[in-house]
Amino acid sequence: MISNQKDKFKLPNNISYLNGAFMSPFLKEVEKIGHESVSQKCFPYQIIGEDFFLQTNKLKQLFALLVEVKDYQNIAVIPSVSYGIANVTNNIVLKKEDEILVIDEQFPSNIYSWQKLAIRYDAKIITAKAPKLVKDRGRNWNKLILDSITNKTKVVSLPIVHWSDGTLFDIKAIREKTNKHNALLIIDGTQSIGALPFSAEEIKPDALICAGYKWLLGPYSIGLAYYSDDFCKNAEPIEENWINRKNSQDFTGLVNYEKDYEPKAGRFNVGEMSNFTLTPMLIKSLEQLIDWQPKNIQEYCREISKSAIKELQDLGCFIEEENYRSSHLFGVYLPENIDLEKLKTKFTKNNIFVSFRGNAIRVASHLYNTKEDFEKLVACFANILLT
């Protein structure tokens, strides 16, 4: 198993940061590159035309490697999940009564565009509601999703793991069902890609959208998206910029206005995609993740948390069964008799950082965490529940 990697981060030893699903800390090397990249702008005469493309192409190639995409030209640089989803909804035409399937309490950036699309075509949003907090909850939720995909379903848009409690969705089975009914599969990978293995070659989603500042360990305001060949055909981006047009590398010919876009997902690149500060930082993050490998991150997080999860369950907390939750992110649902404010105070006193999302306490670990972080977490719960 991979060893603890906290030495690659600046997190203080007295801090138990179990909140990577909120925002990741930078690697030390990423911080260094960020400083260097900011300073580069002091010498703009050193920036040449090809610099607008070399680093960005490298970034796309690394992301393609991470998620097993054959052609990096299927990758676009985006500033946010909402931007990536908007590029999708901008290219979907529906009929009255067509259905768009989402899941209960999905993150807003993967909801609002679908609501707008449904209103435009008088289509329906179908929500697969989360079952009660009982045994087989994850299994039943997955069954409900699969049962909800019918001939009326035109789009299924969901994450791989639920952002608030880490419930794991069977994307392979969902893809098989959408194929049977000719429905699109749009995946928000923000809370999974980088920490959980994923193969676009195996799943073949129509789009995979990822913010960069969580499990990709990158900076805020830059992300990456995969769009399939079929989806890219004749697709229209949500913005028209010089760099997503054909032959944009030829600076001398930019006023020879092009009607054609860059190949494949190049049309979906955000304006100013080259981002000379953020791009090198995200490159370094992806290089480290590829070296670590997401499967090893999952194994590490599982090992350091498994005893704590058992103890929390014994204390009366509900945590999804192992086969239906991710190891890097899971939700702790509290028993009714717990004083939440006292628990929050206990976390603060012990320098434990988690998130409170809906009715769940979201716990999100990484290679900078240890078994001791989870022991501290359990001790806080025990102190409140057993006194």
Can you describe what's shown?
With about 375 residues, this protein is α/β, with parallel strands linked by helices. The chain has helices spanning about 30-40, 50-65, 80-90, 110-120, 135-150, 170-180, 200-205, 230, 280-290, 295-315, 340-350, 370-385; strands at about 15, 75-80, 100-105, 125-130, 155-160, 185-190, 205-210, 225, 330-335, 350-355, 355, 360-365. It has a 7-stranded mixed sheet with strand order 2-8-7-6-5-3-4, sandwiched between helices. Helix 1 packs antiparallel against helix 9 (about 280-290), helix 2 packs parallel to helix 9 (about 280-290) and helix 3 (about 80-90) runs parallel beside helix 4.
The tally of helices reads 12
Question: Based on DSSP secondary structure assignment, what is the total number of beta strands?
Answer: 12
Shape: globular
N- to C-terminal separation? 37 Å
* Poorly predicted parts: none
CATH fold group of the largest domain: Aspartate Aminotransferase, domain 2
Radius of gyration: 22 Å
Strand coverage percent:
5-15%
Task: Please name the CATH architecture of the largest domain.
Answer: 3-Layer(aba) Sandwich
CATH class of the largest domain: Alpha Beta
